[in-house]
Amino acid sequence: MTAVRRYPVLVALVVAALFMVLPFAIVAINAVKSPAEYSSNGPLSLPHGFYLDGLKDFWQRVDYGQKLVNSILISGSVAIGAAVLSVLNAYAIGIGRVRGRTWVLAFFVLANMLPQEALVYPVYYLCKQAGLYDTRLSVIIVFTVVQAAFGTYLLSSVLGQFPREIIEAARIDGANKWQVLWRIVVPVSRPTIGVLLVFFFIWTWNEFLLPLVMLISNDNQTVSVALGVLQGQRLMDATMTNAAALLGVLPAIVFFLVFQRTLTRGIAVGAVK
Amino acid sequence: MTATAERGGEVVRRHHSRTGHPRRPHSSYALFLLPGALAFLTVIVVPFLMNTGVSFTDWQGVGSPKWSGLANYRELMGDSEFWASFRHSLFMVVAMAAVPTVLGLVLAAALFDFVGKHFGTRIAAVLRACFYLPQVLPVAVAGIVWSWILAPDNGSLNALLRAVGLGSLQQDWLGDPDIALYSVMGVMVWVQLGFPLVVFMAGLQRVDPQLYEAAELDGAGWWRRFGHITLPQIRPEIYVVLLWCTIAALKVFGAVYVLTKGGPGGATDVPSYFSFTTFFEKTQVGYGAAISTVLTVIILGLALVGLKLQTRAEDAEEGLRA
User: Fold this and answer.
1) What is the ipTM of this complex?
2) Which of B11, B15, B32 best probes binding to A when mutated, by most A CB atoms within 10 angstroms?
3) Hey, which family's this protein in (chain A) (predicted)?
4) Residue B235 and residue B242: Cα distance in Å, rounded?
5) Which residues contact B314 (CB under 8 A, 6 or more apart)?
6) For A75-131, how does the pLDDT look when each residue is reduced to its tens digit (9 = 90+)?
7) pLDDT tens digits, one per residue of B264-292
8) Which residue, A104, B9, B140, B204, is the most exposed by fewest CB within 10 angstroms?
9) Distance between A177 CA and the closest CA of chain B, angstroms
10) Domain that holds residue B173
11) Second CATH level (architecture) for the domain A64-235
């Protein structure tokens, strides 16, 4: 193909890609505008100065630091808990080949696909009875189990291909099942477990329905819920909305830059199986 | 898949020859399933059964539920709000599964087979990252960004239309009942596109490059290669993506909550939002449970059919190869 015909296609693809990131750019340029500048020049003009009071006001108003701590605490605990649960399940299914494992696996897949709407009211009711309502622990428990369903499914198929010779050798050397799991299977599967940790963390960070129902007090809310609720109430002016958008977008971009490789690799692992 | 099956057979055989050794019974691995099984029982199975049970009652969330049989389901059949929410779900399937899959296929093939080859894999990777970026955003935050861009007065989209002289096309994108659903659909395409793209590009990496080279030598144009090589080669990925995205579309909640709250006038209501308001705003818990049960049956039915189709396709392919 000649260069003359090649470049228009590349240009079209680049334009499409720019269109995808345009909203991020618009958020970024408006976050540093003063309300006066925004209302007189509109959202598309480039900022004249660096106005950070809007961000500062918003940060203090929603106590954004606390929301970040909550989100990190919840997502981190879920990622670790769900990874441990997935490893235990997948060890029994993928390596132990317990009887009826196809059914057990099908059960985990379906549990992961279940809409949360079908769990939300009983979970809300049971947590109220158990005194767990409006605690971060309630959300941690539920998401640990939900994410472990996916982790079990993925890790089981990976462990199903685990080289049996290594395990047999360890058994002959006198290692029991517990030792085989922690000294051999877990270290060898570290790349897949790493992918799971990243995915569990980000998925939990992005969850909305259940945290919205369960975490009503300001001190317990996550970033997603705090911003979503504010927006839903339509109490914010344009500058506030923009500050909210930027502060919500920033952690996602940080994850993206830090974990880009893991994310794309993880999607590939997940899709092929 | 074959590898797993073969190894499974091997284990069974080995197990047979070892029946004289009761010392290490095969099933003792089941102990490792115990924590997972208990956790699933309390967090998923019991609440799910409770929800199904409540759907047969007339319950307001306080006091003891009164059995009402199929009354909730009968009422649903005649509830136009319910039917509208499911109709909107079909629009969401178009916006979150059909369109992203088609666009994702073309973009993935273009980035892999064209940009990657002629301009280097680094440029292809950067472009892929741009398309994928919205996927890491919490959907509530994506909703905030877009509701602000689509705002009627000082929103960026209307400002952009004015700037390029198309001011007559300005709309109240989320506030006009005739347009709101399409606006939400547009946002969802933007949110969703990166997922199929990344999956398909990963899938294309296992395609033998010689196939493309041979086709190019035979004079096949880009679209021919796309139809005859790309599509058949990544069919498993297409199945998976369509299934996952359809299920995600049926479950969509956060975006609707933040963008429109189901409005204006129910124009963007979807089943999950409908059940949410029935549970927590109208406190008709029995009715809400019936809505979410119907949604669950549809999703699980779809998942079962999808998984079956997928394994059948894989079996057929393996049969051909054997």
Assistant:
1) 0.86
2) B32
3) Belongs to the binding-protein-dependent transport system permease family.
4) 11
5) B1, B236
6) 999 999 999 999 999 999 988 888 888 888 888 888 888 999 999 999 999 999 999
7) 888 999 999 999 999 999 889 999 999 99
8) B9
9) 8
10) 82-321
11) Orthogonal Bundle (1.10)
